[in-house]
Structures are given as C-alpha cells and as structure tokens.
Amino acid sequence: MTTVLDMPVAEKPVPTRRVPAVHPLDGKPSLIGMTREELGEALAEAGVPPKQIKMRVQQLWHWMYVRGIGDFDAMFNVSKDLRARLDACFTIARPEIVEDQISEDGTRKWLFRFPPRGAGRPVEIETVYIPEEGRGTLCISSQVGCTLTCSFCHTGTQKLVRNLTAEEVLSQLITARYCLGDFPDRDTPDGAIVPADGRKITNIVMMGMGEPLYNFEEVKKALLIAADGEGLSMSRRRITLSTSGVVPEIARTGEEIGVMLAISLHATNDDLRDLLVPINKKYPLKDLIAACRAYPGVSNARRITFEYVMLREVNDSMEDAKALVQLLKGIPAKINLIPFNPWPGTNYQCSEWEQIEKFADYINQAGYASPIRTPRGRDILAACGQLKSESERMKKTERLAFEAAMIANHGGGDED
Ligand code: SAH
Ligand code: SF4
After folding, report:
1. Band of pLDDT at residue 375, cut at 50, 70 and 90
2. Residue 397 confidence (pLDDT)
3. Atom of ligand 2 nearest to the CA of 146
4. Is 89 an active-site residue?
C-alpha cells in the first residue's frame, strides 16, 4: 500500500547555494517594520523639518512597500542630501540570502541572514514559498526556534534563539517578493500597487518557525504593515496566523490584527494533546475551544482552520474522527489534515494514505471542508514542521567573529 512516505522525493540533492557571509556588519536601525508614527520620528531625528515629515513618510512608505527597493539611492524623488542623511543613520537593506533552494515540486525555501541591529545576535531564518494553481503562499517564521516542544515538530527540538523583530518578520515577505520579481519596476498612472490576483505571493501564513503569539507585538506590527492598503496591501483574509493554542492572545489576534486564525489542534482529548502539544497543559481544550467560539469576526465566511497532523496509530482512528467532529460542533471551521512530515530522529510515522482518506471522508460527510494538505518541498526539508534554522550551525567561531567585529565597529557588544 502506498503511504505518503513512499511518495517520490528527489534522489539527487537539489542544488543549494550557500553564500559566504559578506553582508556588511550593519548595526544601523532599519526603517522596515516601523509604524508610520515611528518612521516620522526617525525622519525627525535625521533632521527632516516637521512640515515635511508627513510627505516624506508617504514617499518612503511607497518606496519600501510598494516598490520594494532596498537602497535609499533609488528614491529619485527624495533629495540627494536627504538620501545621504538617511543612509548615514538608517538602513532599508534586505537580509543576506544565504541559501536559495527549489524543490522538485516548485516549492522554494530561502535561508535569510539578518545582522544584529541591536536586537541580539545575527539570526538565520527559513521562509518557504509554495506556488499553487491560482495562488502562491508564503510561509513566514516568527521566532528562531521555539520554546514549545510539540513532540512531532522538528522546530520544537531547536531551543529558542530569539524572537524576531517586526523588521525580520516583514522582510521575509519583502525579500521573497523581491526574489520572485513580484514588485513592479515602475509606477503606473494608477500607482504601482499590483492587485493581489496578479501577484506571485497572494497569501501569507504565519506557519514557519516559532509560536507567533509568543511574539505578539512584533508580529502584529509586521502584519499590520503587510495589510496596509498604501503599501504591501495584502488582504487580511489572505493572512493566516497559526497558533498552538496561546489562549490569552487569541481574542487580541482578532481584535488588533484582524487576520484569519488557524489552531494546531492535533488531538481531541486533553490526555493526548498534553503529549503532542504540551502547551495544552497550561491551556486545555475547553479553554481553547471557548476562545475559538468567541474569536472576533468568526463566521461561515471567515472560518477558523483547525490543523490536524495525521500520526499513524496515534490520532488517526475513526473514533478520533468522530470526536473531532463532536468537539468542533457549532464552530465555523475548516479542518486541515496534514500528513506527518518525518524528520531525522522522530519516532512518529505518517498515517497510511488510505486511513487519511477515510478520515477525511468522514469529516467531509459531517459537513466540514477537510482538505488533505499535500506535502510540499519535503526533498528540501521545507514542509510543515521540518524547518530548523541554520542558526544552530552558526555557532561559536562564526558568531564570535561576527560579535567581535560588531564591538570593533560600534564600541559595544550585542545583548541577548
Ligand atoms: N507554532 C505555530 C505555527 C508553526 S507550525 C503552531 O504550532 O501552530 C505550522 C503547522 O505545522 C502547525 O499546525 C504544526 O503543528 C504543524 N507541524 C509541526 N510539525 C509537523 C510535522 N512534522 N508534520 C506535519 N505538520 C507539522
Ligand atoms: Fe513550536 Fe508550532 Fe513546532 Fe509546536 S508545532 S514546537 S508551537 S513551531
């Protein structure tokens, strides 16, 4: 019998480009990820007269988020003198692209390296692009590593390096769009904002490394900028934030960010969920489900996605399927069945394909859309739960050299 594990994966290694670290040790603060207000303050600091601030903020916003440029020099409607002053104080540089891999199925995974910018050590972040018929989804990380230790997740085996800043969250989108040629190269009479349908990245999901609700403020800032209609202009309905169940932050996600919610459910009773998703011990199913029912804006048109990883003989019986339907009764929900993606050292196995289909059929008949998520990018370890950044690889020697250079350049060390 064929299981997903038998599906073909690339036999030859897919070419990987690993570029040596040549990024300048740029500790200047980035303007990417600042709110309009913060941007105004930064411009005032750079000596822009108060009367010009609003106009300059608008210009910069357009260049950074509509045109996606990574260099002040390209801003031809900003005077040379101001460009030089901005460049002396700030940066809008994109991260260094350390690796750029393309899977046999077209999934693309980047490894981005960000300099410290005073937020701690330099970090390497994985971001994944999944092209599909009529849409393209970017899977964005919110932390390097994760403090939660879901037993089936590769990221959970990497201890938290640190939270990402709003710049780092947002730059994943900007840099991916740049690499895909998804920014317009000129303004048109109607402005340069490309309608969502004409873009390569139509959707974003906060489903990369980390627990986004443990980094609420920075994720919020980044997503509000991503959704800003005068900039990156992503529709909030095409932004999905996935959480393992940080109950106290769920209502705020709806109220303050207004994006679609996905819950990593994976089990229908507390005993099993405690084992699979240990945060369940803190916020058990009863509280999680109550928070979902109360999610601001939830309706049949704006359903909550429940993610359910299919683990062989762990949570994939027909009793589990029945319990799932029972548990979600009355919640406008979609159920996303994720075939387990194996990683080196795991004890779990993916359910048999036939069992996944039986499970899906049952849920479908109970009235829930229950797509089975096709594993994408397994050959380059880009599939759900397989990400584990190379920050661990950037150990001692490389980091020490990096930090020593920072101290030499700026007269101070970076803090964790
Ligand atoms: N931390 C957040 C978002 C990142 S994980 C969360 O847990 O929701 C994105 C999804 O991939 C989650 O539903 C997660 O449970 C699932 N996942 C993790 N490891 C997996 C694996 N090995 N195979 C399949 N899905 C996995
Ligand atoms: Fe963290 Fe999500 Fe992985 Fe759990 S599934 S360890 S919350 S990244």
Report:
1. confident
2. 46
3. 1
4. no
